[in-house]
Amino acid sequence: MKRFFKKTAGFGLLFLGVVLFFAIGRILLIRNDKDAYIMAFFAKREMLAGKNHRQQQSIILLGGSNVAFGFDSRMIREATGLPVINTGVTAHFGLKFMLDNIAEYLRKGDILIVAPEYHHFYGNKAYGWANTDDIIALICLDTSVISGFDTEQFKMALCNAGSFLCHSISVFAKWPVNTDMKGYKRSGFNEYGDYVKHRTMPSRPYTHASPADFDTINTAFLDYCENAVAALRNRGIQVIIIPPSFAETSYRKVEERLIPLFSELGKRNLGFSIPPQESAYPDSLFFDTHYHLSHEGVLIRTKQLVRLMETGGFVR
Known about the structure:
Order of helices and strands: HHHEHHEHEHHHEEHEH
Number of domains: 1
Oligomer: single chain
């Protein structure tokens, strides 16, 4: 029996060593791949800290990949006369991280457009999405990002560290190695922070949202959002909250689960300035997920936002 345990322990240690080897290799690849999609986070952080933004009122777009893939910032700039920075990268970071990260860069007079993915308000997705690698990759690139983490975010990061290790093996199973699972690249972003590489590509099949993903509303996080947004508004920052772009079929499938969320947001002065039904676009306007718009969808959504800003008196 003792011999069996020794063999088992030896095999376990060997397996762990192999997994760690691949994980370290993947971290080194990410660090050296300047065109990795996640590198856009740092480029956008530089845009926020840059002279252009510091010296004049700006429009800042905040959210996950529904924002990255969802706007034509040049069109917004031409319509409003204000510089635009699209900070969207991925929802996997969690909305709490996005709100905390953006706060220090905002100035009095800025207009913050927040378009959060619906998933953020259910379960613990506000603190990062389980079984995804993005927040771990971000920490590997810049450990300072964890300085504002709370207990829930640390728990999610630890959970995702395990999946990062396992996914690292599958990354090396294909050659050449691709550090971005879906093939998105840093070079796919334009100077405003919009992801544009997909706009000339045909749409791909995608899976619609499931009601199972919208089970329990995280009211504790909603309270956090209420305080965070109130603090920004008290600093003289205009905060406009709009729905994410969402495929119509997905919206119909989960609408009953979303209605209580809309009520909770309204109670906290976090209601959407655009009716959610108007952001449930036809399925044909999406590229590869129920959040990622195609070019045609981007133009429709951007015109919708510009119209809101003009009629709402947010800009000239």
